[in-house]
């Protein structure tokens, strides 16, 4: 869609290994509009991080296209134009390994400024202080510290300041809070929300924490075994999930009160584990765990279809609005006949 | 603006001082390392000031006094005199000059190329660059060091400079291997990835991101190697391929005196002990540095 800041089209990333080809990302398409917080959710091994790493350019995709502001950026980082590198930034999961332990925060923050020639030699010091102010760290003190001398949450704030140093428009957040204490998580999330408003940022937020998405995402996409299952605006996603996997995930969010329990979809027992992406079973990737799997699910991989505008799902059992009256079984039956 | 720069400088200096103080605290926990450092400082200053503090500076060169030849240790000649009447103590102190010079020159010649090649090979692991660099390194490591050093110095004119050159040629592969191991494990750390994605240059990634993390093992290995290099230099001199007479060199002195053992034991034993002492001191200091860096690493 024109006007989208990022659009990923049928992205695939396969890693050849001794055991076979790992289909880490296997045909993912989505697009993000400016100002959005797009939540990409999935369990470990679903390929969400690989998707982000393809977008940021850690390695080129096996196939598919990545468009950023109308520019095709399929290449890995070493072949990307510099302005894209400044405009599209990432915050990694573990700030312990994303900040060089041998360099001071001042040195760490000066790298993007030097590389992208932001500010004069003198102006950079002021800019670095402003960046630390932005992430609510006392600049004069923290500029001259090493990363190991500060706490995990503070490190992540420094990593965020470094990402923002080049005035990016899209920031990929690869589980930015999952390595942190719960008490610090909330602080980081509030900071992210505030900075998004102040700096007009767009986020691609990767996480396995669904309840977090409810608070900050504008749209949520669920990923399973290298493919997207369902994309929906946040409210719709939580109120009327369609895909059995989404329902399974939502019903397994732990809650404390009965009122919250009542908000959740009816209990879908979560069984089994994500299959190995080396030998993906035929048909729908989720059929081995799906409580509603029919015969067709074991043979044919479903296509992404629109349930409503901006709500897409990839499931044979999906009910389109115009077929609301039909019985589920007859829909399936019809499809099976067509396939035969 | 000027004040801000000043504040920046002050804060940076303070940081340096703090990390130095922390390092010294860890180092000083080990009394043997402190002793090694004291011995090393004493040897270093006395070698540096040799012409001013030794009792007979003239004995360092081509000096003869056959009337006092072969004297045992006494108050006049602390370590005795050699077969042509030169004061052994004076010559040992002067000998340290050349041993230390040899160590410093060899390591500064050998470490830099080894480190650079190791960084490149480690960062480009899995490419032809790594294969070329590391296989050449393997070839050098496959040759026994003393034999190669002997061959090179014998081919060129045997003197101190060529001995340094020969040993330096043997030394870089070890540093290449060491840095290669560290760099190839750091290559996949996210801080290196981040610098790449940000658009930083290769030089920045190699020397600003990876190299600072290699400094600790390099420095530790250098101090431990100083002893070995000095020993190797002494060995070359012992077989006559290092410094040539009348240059005072510990290895040559041991060789000369050995002909007169056991009678004039002092002209062999004292230079030999001097070699042992400096190597021991370097090893103790190396252990201390290892403590400093190892604790920091955790």
Account of the 3D structure:
Chain A has 340 residues and is α/β, with parallel strands linked by helices. Chain A has two domains: 217 residues, P-loop containing nucleotide triphosphate hydrolases (Rossmann fold, 3-Layer(aba) Sandwich), CATH 3.40.50.300; 93 residues, no CATH class. Chain A contains 14 helices and twelve strands. Chain A has an eight-stranded mixed β-sheet with strand order 6-7-8-3-9-10-12-11, sandwiched between helices. The longest helix of chain A has 18 residues. The two termini of chain A are 35 Å apart. In chain A, 43% of the residues are buried. About 4% of the residues of chain A have low confidence. With 298 residues, chain B is an all-alpha fold. Chain B has a single domain, classed as Orthogonal Bundle (MetI-like fold). Chain B is 76% helix and 0% strand. Chain B has eleven helices and no strands. At the A-B interface, helix 2 and helix 4 of A face helix 1, helix 8 and helix 9 of B.
Draw up the topology in text.
The complex is a heterodimer of chains A (340) and B (298).
Chain A: E1 6-17, E2 20-32, E3 37-41, H1 48-56, E4 63-68, E5 71-72, H2 82-87, E6 88-91, H3 95-98, H4 105-115, H5 123-134, H6 139-142, H7 152-164, E7 170-174, H8 182-199, E8 202-207, H9 210-216, E9 219-224, E10 227-233, H10 234-239, H11 244-251, H12 258-263, H13 295-299, E11 305-308, E12 311-313, H14 328-339
Parallel strand pairs in A: 3-8, 3-9, 6-7, 7-8
Antiparallel strand pairs in A: 1-2, 1-4, 4-5, 9-10, 10-12, 11-12
Helix pairs in contact in A: 4-7, 7-8
Chain B: H1 2-28, H2 31-48, H3 50-53, H4 88-123, H5 128-142, H6 145-155, H7 160-186, H8 190-198, H9 202-238, H10 250-258, H11 266-297
Helix pairs in contact in B: 1-11, 2-4, 2-11, 4-5, 4-7, 4-9, 4-11, 5-7, 6-7, 7-9, 8-9, 9-10, 9-11, 10-11
